Amino acid sequence: MQRVMESFLVILMMIGAYLVDAAIIRGESCDAEALVFYRIRLVTNWNRKLFPKHYPEFRPPPQWSITYGQSHNASFRLFRLKDYASQAVQNFAETGHAHALEEHLAEQQSNGMIHDEFHLPKIPKGQGATEGTFFVDGQHTKVSFMTKIVPSPDWFVGVDSYNLCLAGRWVDNITIPLGPLDAGTSNGLTFTSPKWPTNPPNVIEQITARYPMHLASSFFYPEIKHLPSIAHVTFTKLHEYRGSNNVHKKVKKLKTKQRAKLLKKLAYANRKSENEVEKVSFRSSNGDCMVSGWSEWSPCSKSCDVGKKTRSRSVLRYPTENGRDCPHLTETQWCGSARQCTTNESYFRW
Q: How far is Cα 283 from Cα 285, in angstroms, rounded to an integer?
């Protein structure tokens, strides 16, 4: 019966993924120019009443590591069930330290796969909450994160590539229950087991009330069908920026750290577009308009906060009666600096 239920859940997930993909194929994607501000709130429910077996008391007592996550496009995966953990994910799942992840993901951010990162503070007890904020945009609509269960060999909770753009709309609010995951890199069946490398490593698996099927397993409760949720995460949309007036109006209301992160995203978008020169080819035998290449970007209109910069091109030949019209001749991009315009605020530190 357990296998039937698991197969049914897999089928439902496949149907959901198909519907989302079908919506994208029909053009029901979110605004490519939108910049959307989300809050993430992680709530943990690890207590003796829900999980009495092997509940740790000392060295250390139940707690949670920092939460490390990112918004990204469809090409990036932090981790994936039934797949092998990367070296960076293995290190985090075993130690709770994010240094290796930060170095590895910096490469992904430089090639445009990752849009934003977030680090949520540790939760010092089994039950607690932590929260933070991040940005997504029309090209980076998915979010992933992981948080280590402490103590444990290599167990964690997390979300793999949740799409915040569904059927052409940004999700306003969603809560997702979380269960324990096994990174498959360290042997041990209990919370306080010594860390012995699994050689060869196993794939990442969902820990259930009956998996691993071993009496010594800390999550082995054969008398129940499903484990209670050990945590849940809520994503809440805070702001959606669409156009110059909206951005300039709302950015002033953001707190220092929020504005700094917004400027970081805008600056990234500008850097990405600086090397993109629109190539317009015309046959000399027709009467289409012909334009020059783009000029260099102008200096930013502001040295702090959000400003604009422009570039232009000129008409080399106007169209004849049956030729194609000239394309737009100017472009505007957001720009800015995380330097503060006032001295009474401090820059947000990661």
A: 5
Residues whose CB is less than 8 angstroms from the CB of residue 200 and which lie 6 or more positions away in sequence, other chains included? none
Q: Pairing relation of β-strands 173-178 and 205-206?
A: unpaired
Tell me the pTM. Answer: 0.69
Burial 78-108 (b: 16+ CB within 10 A, else e): bbeeeebbbebbbbbbbebebebbbebbeeb
Looking up tokens 């709302």, which residue turns up? 250
Q: How far is CA 172 from CA 31, 129, 168, 177, 234, in A?
A: 15, 20, 12, 17, 10
- Residue 346 is classified by DSSP as -
Within 13 A of 218's CA, how many CA atoms are on the CB side? 24
Which residues lie across from 315 on neighbouring strands?
291
Query: Which residue reads 């950015």 in tokens?
Result: 251
Residues 6+ apart with CB under 8 A from 7: none
Q: Residue 22: its pLDDT value, please?
A: 45
Q: The tokens of 312 are what?
A: 């232009």
Q: Which pairs count as long-range contacts for 331-334, CB under 8 Å and 24+ apart, including other chains? A: 331/294, 332/244, 332/308, 333/269, 333/270, 333/273, 333/297, 333/308, 333/309, 334/247, 334/266, 334/269, 334/270, 334/306, 334/307, 334/308
For 93-129, write each residue's pLDDT tens digit. 999 998 888 887 777 777 789 988 899 999 999 999 9
Unique residue bearing structure tokens 């209670």: 228
User: Which of 9, 141, 146, 168 is closest to 64 using CA atoms?
Assistant: 146
**Cα dihedral across residues 248, 252, 253, 259: positive or negative:** positive
Distance CA(88)–CA(105), nearest Å, equals 9
